[in-house]
């Protein structure tokens, strides 16, 4: 009888493991395409966490559902259940296992973060720690390539403007060369904005009056969306821009061509809506912050 | 005669003149100092605000059912999500739990009332004041606050209406009032639990709900001053031109985030700990088994309170936070899963092999448990820095958060309302309507909040009033789930009103539960206990049938 019980538990555990592994593999398809080198690392971590999570969730839920199905009291059964108050061994085991899991997850997450080396602001708190973050700078993901592009990102209510200082080009569309590490210097003119490209899995707040450094490596040619990830006021949802990742040649060609364009005001949804609002039929009369001047750029989409 | 202590007077004389405020419905509109009246005042007020916050949610889900911004103005939308978050947190979850704690803690520890009954009443009456303030902001020229319930500067410092009395100003006042009220409550609860326990009610004989309230209120004591101070500083920045947080004038915008999250993450544990307490009360009764690992579960509440002081930066991984800080707070945040895991395993072990009865309270508790396990797992993914960088401020977070606050907290509150309804009103609720309510709420919760996870993973941001067409499918599902969730409260409201007026009279202990509150009549008399009980055993003695209290005349043997 005991062997029978043990084998049921073993079979269930194996089945649970297989199902969890399968769900963990599915996790990749829940995410946008992997358009930056960093996204591959993050997706692997996510798949790992989904596998673990599925195992725990299904394990707990199955146990509860089993009890609810098979341990119901009959209509006239007013007896109590067995008065089991605890079991030290079991309690120690289920305290130690989560602690080990936490250390494992934290260690793996640290490793991924270290490899990403996306930078971000270090100047806020001047503390030299033994946690190895400095060395992370020395060894970014692809140590053979130093960041080749330095692009200035300027966020304001509600527009993105990108400036390529070497070519003197400004644009409302962010063009990036594929397979090269890029360096962004991000600034905000007014409130906190957030730089977020879901396909890159990367996000960084842009704090006013500070320059935020940010590094990553796009790897997949295509067109993606950049959004403002930190609530920035009335027209928050309109603060979007296209991100075009292209081959190095196409990228250089684009820069050279755009440099010849004359700067002109870019179309801006927030500004358009702000003017429309005053003509609307149903008005609450609630004022909104006036959008910043449409930026003058060499290139807009 | 000469050596009677203050404690004796409080507990045994029970001569509180305010308690003679009558017994009819009118006492609920009076400045009553009876903890039971105050408890019900809190619960009913909170529920009304829950409905208000729910209506705001319906507007939000109505707007998001299509990708375009076409139902309300963007300013109105921003006010809706700001007020939804504010009302649901400061108007529903905190007050409703304080209401239950108010009602149950003195009964559960064998006291006649809270330590400071008048402070208790003052603390309650500040809640309607804060709520009326908030609602009044709909009528000022600029409309209500629109900066989100976080109110991050500099957005919250922008004042397009140009008026001194604007929505953000009122919002900050209301938050400060609510903060002061909660600090008063915290002082009262901690004092009551430490000083007013009946003879024999040692700490390790306290019900787990009392442990949970105790731990949660300790968080209030260290955390709330930070939020209240942050709110007052922001108010000064907004009105008199100080520059704590305004970068344009040399202030530090990120500093506010530290003030805010230093309290507002632990606040989640303030809310959820009592719900864990409620689960721990309910599972043993309806499984007819002692709570598995009582002492570990009790201590885990205090552990959660302790660790909670060291997790706030996980809201700020992308806020310009240096790498070492991101990593330290990742580890502390993940460690919260250890004491919560202990609780979950203990509940599952309590249910295992029991004699289960799936009455409405048990259904809500089981549903809440399963939804909480899901929320806990997504919580771990959020604490991991690299993954959080991707999903931070997306609907993934909103989904996680609503599994915690609707799936767990609100389900737990409904479990508590049904479980203690006979005690509070002296009448039984209608079981069929209760079960209908559960199933509508459980299905609605999952339809509403599950789709937020795929949306967030795909990159849909929170607080947007319009979105890319590719997000439409899951938004439609979420909105339909939201409307179902809204409807699910109808059978609840009908059940509560009809049962309170015409329900079957409830006996003292309809669930055959163990606990001091079940030893008194339903509803309990004004001063709770004719004679203060003497506790002689640990709680949750299901299956052991040992008496909880000493019979009259036996008292001296058990000192």
From TrEMBL, chain A:
Q: What Pfam families does this protein's entry cite?
A: COX2 (PF00116), COX2_TM (PF02790)
Give the cofactor binding note: Binds a copper A center.
Q: List the catalysed reactions.
A: 4 Fe(II)-[cytochrome c] + O2 + 8 H(+)(in) = 4 Fe(III)-[cytochrome c] + 2 H2O + 4 H(+)(out)
Q: Could you tell me the membrane topology recorded for this protein?
A: Multi-pass membrane protein
Molecular function, one GO term: copper ion binding
Its GO biological process annotations read: ATP synthesis coupled electron transport
Q: Where in the cell is it found?
A: Cell membrane; Membrane
Keywords in alphabetical order, please. Answer: Copper, Electron transport, Membrane, Metal-binding, Respiratory chain, Translocase, Transmembrane, Transmembrane helix, Transport
At the top of the EC hierarchy, this enzyme's class is translocase
Q: Which domain of life is it from?
A: Bacteria
Outline the extent of the Cytochrome oxidase subunit II copper A binding domain: 146-257
**Which residues, by range, are in coiled-coil regions?**
none
Domain (Cytochrome oxidase subunit II transmembrane region profile): residue spans on this chain: 23-120
Relate the protein's function as given in its record: Subunits I and II form the functional core of the enzyme complex. Electrons originating in cytochrome c are transferred via heme a and Cu(A) to the binuclear center formed by heme a3 and Cu(B).
Q: What is this protein called?
A: Cytochrome c oxidase subunit 2
Organism of origin? Brasilonema sennae CENA114
From TrEMBL, chain B:
Can you give the residue ranges of the Cytochrome oxidase subunit I profile domain? 19-536
Q: Name one GO cellular component term.
A: plasma membrane
Please provide, alphabetically and separated by semicolons, the GO molecular function terms listed in this UniProt record.
cytochrome-c oxidase activity; heme binding; metal ion binding; oxidoreductase activity
Q: State the UniProt keywords alphabetically.
A: Cell membrane, Copper, Electron transport, Heme, Iron, Membrane, Metal-binding, Oxidoreductase, Respiratory chain, Translocase, Transmembrane, Transmembrane helix, Transport
Give the main EC class: translocase
Q: Which reaction does it catalyse?
A: 4 Fe(II)-[cytochrome c] + O2 + 8 H(+)(in) = 4 Fe(III)-[cytochrome c] + 2 H2O + 4 H(+)(out)
Membrane-topology descriptor: Multi-pass membrane protein
Q: Name one Pfam family in it.
A: COX1
Kindly state a single biological-process term from the GO annotations of this entry.
oxidative phosphorylation
- Report the InterPro entries cross-referenced here: Cyt_c_oxase-like_su1_dom, Cyt_c_oxase-like_su1_sf, Cyt_C_Oxase_1, Cyt_c_Oxase_su1_BS, Cyt_c_oxidase_su1_bac
Q: In which pathway does it act?
A: Energy metabolism; oxidative phosphorylation
> Do the record's keywords include GTP-binding?
no
Q: Where is this gene product found? A: Cell membrane; Membrane
Question: Which positions, given as ranges, span the membrane?
Answer: 37-60, 80-109, 121-140, 169-196, 208-236, 256-279, 291-315, 327-350, 362-383, 403-421, 433-453, 473-494
According to the UniProt entry, what is the EC number of this protein? 7.1.1.9
UniProt lists the family membership as follows: Belongs to the heme-copper respiratory oxidase family.
Under NCBIfam families, the record lists:
CtaD_CoxA
- Function text: Cytochrome c oxidase is the component of the respiratory chain that catalyzes the reduction of oxygen to water. Subunits 1-3 form the functional core of the enzyme complex. CO I is the catalytic subunit of the enzyme. Electrons originating in cytochrome c are transferred via the copper A center of subunit 2 and heme A of subunit 1 to the bimetallic center formed by heme A3 and copper B.
What is the recorded name of this protein? Cytochrome c oxidase subunit 1
Q: Gene name on record?
A: ctaD
